[in-house]
Design a protein that fits this description.
single chain, alpha/beta, Rossmann fold, 3-hydroxyacyl-CoA dehydrogenase, NAD(P)-bd_dom_sf, Sc_DH/Rdtase_CS
């Protein structure tokens, strides 16, 4: 049986290590040709190392697969367009884009400076737009294509010290839904994955307390290959009827994540003022308020 992704071409950004590398290897093993994009920066986005992407290409080719390295910057639209051009120039087609590139510059909100905010937004949110937009004319013309974007429970649920990252990841979830809606007429799909996996991106999580150390130990058991198989599925024709969704991959668990919908409404024929909102509306609604929880408190059980 021919694998649904065989003879397809995929771009994977941030594929020099961690989750991106696992996705590139998984897709190549399933027969896809892969553009391995990575600048080779540090977790904070500093420096470059062009050998990171090439090392993954070498590994794919050693296993009999097809791949090409690319070191363009997703945060710049012209540079991101070169990533897509690499796929077309090398393999003559493009079937899937996996937006995985990212950096971290964690800081409590009241201490975060504008440069820390902008750097993370540029790579995650603008980078996802840039690469996706560059691929859109190709997908539209061929009336086929799949986007897979990496969001995070930091954006879907919340985390402390990550206002920039959380905002970017929440924005990516909304961007994915808009792409799914706008591109549906061309048979183009767009979905998100919120990955739980140990990588250098979360290697900076503090371990100052026994509770923090226990959380890190749990994360270390969740390997990137668990995310890679879901990304490969979503990029393949097996997922032909799946679009506009947000999934989480956590060990051997796959979750369908909720999307914002009204929980409860309250009407007052006379209208509202601050006093009646305080005395009537809020008491009626507060039973369904969301608590100030972080991701680790919502996903509080051990991965299976």
């Amino acid at each position: 049986m021919t694998d649904p992704i065989e003879q397809r071409v995929a771009v994977v950004t941030g594929a020099g290590g961690g989750i991106g590398k696992a996705i590139a290897l998984e897709m190549a093993a399933d027969g896809a040709a892969v553009v391995v994009n990575d600048l080779g920066t540090s977790v904070s986005g500093d420096g470059t190392d062009q050998s990171a992407a090439q090392a993954v290409v070498d590994e794919i080719e050693a296993a009999g697969g097809r791949a090409v390295a690319n070191t363009d910057n997703v945060a710049d639209y012209a540079s991101a367009s070169n990533i897509i051009a690499t796929a077309m120039d090398t393999f003559g087609r493009l079937d899937a884009v996996i937006n995985n590139a990212g950096i971290l510059r964690d800081r409590m909100f009241h201490k975060m400076d504008p440069d820390e905010w902008k750097a993370v937004i540029d790579v995650h949110l603008h980078g996802t737009f840039n690469v996706s937009r560059a691929a859109a004319p190709i997908f539209r013309q061929q009336e086929a294509g799949a986007y897979v974007h990496m969001t995070s429970t930091s954006g879907l649920i919340g985390n402390r010290g990550q206002a920039n990252y959380s905002a970017a990841k929440a924005g990516i979830a909304s961007l994915s839904k808009s792409i799914a809606l706008d591109m549906a007429a061309f048979n183009v799909r767009s979905n998100c994955i919120s990955p739980f996996a140990w990588s250098r991106m979360i290697g900076s999580i503090p371990t100052d307390t026994p509770e923090q150390q226990a959380r890190v130990d749990k994360l270390k058991s969740m390997t990137p290959d668990k995310v890679a198989v879901l990304a490969t599925y979503l990029a393949s024709d097996r997922a032909a009827d799946v679009s506009g969704q947000i999934f989480a991959a956590r060990g051997n668990e796959i979750f369908l994540m909720g999307q914002s919908r009204p929980l409860r409404g309250i009407h007052r024929s006379e209208g509202w003022d601050p006093e009646t909102i305080a005395s009537e509306a809020m008491p009626a609604l507060q039973g369904q308020f969301y608590p100030l929880e972080v991701s680790g408190e919502v996903f509080s059980w051990d991965p299976v």
